[in-house]
UniProtKB/TrEMBL annotation, chains A, B:
Name of the coding gene: truA
Family per similarity comment: Belongs to the tRNA pseudouridine synthase TruA family.
Domain of life: Archaea
UniProt entry keywords in alphabetical sequence: Isomerase, Lyase, tRNA processing
GO MF annotation, one: tRNA pseudouridine(38-40) synthase activity
PANTHER family: PSEUDOURIDYLATE SYNTHASE (PTHR11142), TRNA PSEUDOURIDINE SYNTHASE-LIKE 1 (PTHR11142:SF0)
InterPro entries named in the record: PsdUridine_synth_cat_dom_sf (IPR020103), PsdUridine_synth_TruA (IPR001406), PsdUridine_synth_TruA_a/b_dom (IPR020097), PsdUridine_synth_TruA_C (IPR020095)
Gene3D superfamilies: Pseudouridine synthase I, catalytic domain, C-terminal subdomain (3.30.70.660)
Gene Ontology BP term (one): tRNA pseudouridine synthesis
Name under which the protein is recorded: tRNA pseudouridine synthase A
Catalytic activity, as annotated: uridine(38/39/40) in tRNA = pseudouridine(38/39/40) in tRNA
EC number(s) reported in the record: 5.4.99.12
Length: 251, 251
């Protein structure tokens, strides 16, 4: 069996799986079959290092030629029969939000609540067993944006987006750290915590303790793709600011 | 005849006219007929206050219900037979570029070259008569982006994007103000000046000295639309930065 490293632009797909225009069916067409996946990311979420398992090794050039725009297979590793890509040592996600005056120290205090083993039932959606471990949540102030880096073995459905919402809400004074603590410790199911927007979340990597063969040419192509989309959306979002400002003058 | 105020998100259309998925055919379906237009903006260029002329007045609610997402008619004025929307007192465009360390004083010096009446043959594309007047070019440093505001009676094909390129290139030291001056004064046709990316350009308004009736409800809807797209693209462009940084570590 082969484990493949997969990257995609979440904006161009209807989620990872379960829809004709999601990532997985496009991968299956190029790889032959997809037997397992590392993470089923939500619609709108991008990934650099997601992993899928397929029966046989095909040349990466041939695979990528059969993939649509915004989706790449950029590495592979031979893995034993029975390798389960759900079982990882560590997953790293980053959540990005434009800076809107959040108090970074309050965000760090809120983030520290979630680190460790907890029952995340009030910070997950539709799961029976919500007990899992977060290794670390790093909160960085990057001047124009806030960056939350999550490390853990595995995360429950919507858990990262709900925790991201909670940390940002604490930083904005919308909820207190004490309220979040109470909600995390409560065994009752409470009013669901909102999920922060999907487009802020990126799956960076999944560590299985195995070494992948990587293709630098494909990585270079990905680099150029994401750089040009970054520049396009940066320019567009600034252009929209001018339209917004001018509409505001008319209202 | 009726002159209508038209706004659109340039990202969603194949330019203003000449393509089945451009702005004008969509307007014509909702308005009945389009007899004239204020500005034929390039593909990718957004507008807040473009103008089209149509034979009869329809209720704005009915027009907007027939328009696709990202296109609005938000005002109207009765105009005389023979009103030519190409002939305006003043057009205002803004060009936005993410800040990349440009020298703002050099940009202001470069911008001042273009103000006044000039033959813009080396800063326009495929036009016979390139003589026109720019009233002003305002260069503002908005910390994360540079904003160039152009005012003039009318601009030649690609002229604003070529002048924006020239001003930004001067600010980055790619060309000198003296070289631009020489190019503007030269009567020979030289190697074409590149055009700055279309997504940075926005048509803000066209002044005909007439008063339009405007619809605040439609403006409010436009405001929410552009605000949510601004936030989406801001978040996405920051997410792409994280992917780019992590690819760079692997290269």
């Amino acid at each position: 069996m082969i484990a493949y490293l997969v990257a995609y632009d979440g904006e161009l797909f209807y989620g990872f799986t379960g829809h004709p225009r999601s990532v997985e069916p496009a991968l299956a067409r190029a790889l032959g079959r997809v037997l397992g996946r590392g993470s089923r990311t939500d619609p709108g979420v991008s990934a650099l290092g997601n992993v899928v398992v397929s029966p046989e090794l095909k040349p990466l050039g041939q695979i990528n030629a059969a993939l649509p725009r915004g989706l790449w297979v950029w590495g592979y590793a031979n893995v034993e029969e029975g390798f389960n890509p759900r079982r990882a040592r560590e997953r790293t996600y980053v959540y990005i939000a434009p800076y809107r005056g959040e108090d970074v120290e309050l965000m760090r205090r809120a983030a520290s609540l979630f680190v460790g083993v907890h029952d995340f039932r009030n910070f997950a959606k539709g799961v029976e067993n919500a007990i899992t471990q977060i290794f670390s949540i790093d909160v960085e102030d990057r001047a124009t944006y806030i960056e939350l880096t999550f490390k853990g073995r595995g995360f429950k459905n919507k858990m990262l987006r709900k925790i991201a919402w909670a940390i940002l809400a604490a930083g904005r004074g919308v909820v207190s750290v004490e309220e979040l603590e109470e909600l995390l410790k409560s065994r009752e199911r409470r009013t669901p915590v909102p999920s922060a927007p999907a487009e802020g979340l990126v799956l960076l990597s999944i560590d299985y303790g195995i070494q992948f063969q990587i293709d630098r040419n494909i990585l270079s192509r990905m680099f150029r793709y994401f750089q040009s989309k970054h520049q396009l959306y940066m320019s567009l979002s600034y252009s929209y600011i001018k339209i917004i400002e001018n509409i505001a003058k008319l209202l």
